[in-house]
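User: CobQ/CobB/MinD/ParA nucleotide binding domain-containing protein. Structure?
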Amino acid sequence: MSYNIAVAGKGGTGKTSLTGLLIDILLKENKKPILVVDADANANINEVLGVEVEETIGQIEKKLI
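Assistant: Predicted structure:
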C-alpha cells in the first residue's frame, strides 16, 4: 500500500521538524523506502534526516530537457 502525504502551513510552524519525525516513525514501522520531496525554497529536510542530497529535482529536470 502506498500513501501520499503533504505537510503545509505558515513559515516557522515546525513543518520540517514534524516531517522529519513522521519519516522516522514511518521508516521504523514499515521498513520500506520513502521518497521525500522538500518544495521549500530553503529545502533542508536532508539536514533533519541526516542524509546527503545526491541530486535535486531541478538537476534531474535539466538532464531530461
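DSSP finds three helices and no strands in the chain. Residues 15-64 form one domain.
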